[in-house]
């Protein structure tokens, strides 16, 4: 990702026998942004990592990139996600100088036969969660004032929504 990605709606997804169920990736030197993304109604089975968002991607198209360009990753919502036989529920690995912000998890259930206490790994990320099993890392445990509130984003009403 170098040019930016925003106002994306992805729903009704089925993922089977995969390394990653949902993956967003960027890196220092990429700049731009990943923002206002809404993923919902996802079913995954036999997946190594249910959700992965990383700022540690190392590939660049050539050597002429600005190593100081920092991407912005914000406003990402994951809602109504069910996973069966998931090894690691989630990995959120932001960038020290540009943490991932406004990450929102709502109604996410990712089951596995592995140790649930080590199923989320987080660094340089902040966000909220409600109704998430196994319990996410502390950086994603901020709750809303009302436990019945779902996380959401407002997609730009002028955006074109494409079927994925």
TrEMBL record:
Protein name: Polygalacturonase
Organism of origin: Salvia divinorum (Maria pastora)
Species classification: Eukaryota, Viridiplantae, Streptophyta, Embryophyta, Tracheophyta
MF annotations from Gene Ontology: hydrolase activity, acting on glycosyl bonds
Signal peptide positions on this chain: none
This protein's record includes keyword Magnesium: no
Pfam families: Glyco_hydro_28
Family: Belongs to the glycosyl hydrolase 28 family.
Keyword Disulfide bond (UniProt): no
Keywords: Glycosidase, Hydrolase
């Amino acid at each position: 990702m170098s040019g930016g990605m925003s106002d994306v709606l992805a729903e009704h997804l089925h993922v089977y026998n995969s390394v990653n169920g949902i993956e967003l990736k960027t890196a220092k030197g990429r700049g731009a942004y990943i923002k206002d993304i809404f993923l919902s109604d996802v079913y995954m089975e036999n997946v190594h990592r249910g959700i992965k968002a990383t700022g540690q991607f190392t590939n660049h198209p050539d050597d002429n990139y600005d190593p100081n360009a920092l991407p912005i990753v914000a406003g990402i919502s994951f809602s109504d996600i069910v996973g069966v036989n998931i090894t690691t529920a989630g990995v959120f690995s932001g960038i020290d100088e540009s943490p991932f912000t406004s990450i929102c998890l709502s109604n996410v259930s990712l089951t596995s036969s592995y140790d649930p206490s080590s199923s989320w790994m987080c660094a340089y990320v902040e966000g909220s969660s409600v109704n998430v099993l196994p319990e996410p890392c502390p950086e994603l445990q901020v709750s809303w004032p009302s436990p019945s509130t779902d996380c959401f984003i407002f997609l730009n009403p002028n955006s074109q929504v494409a079927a994925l």
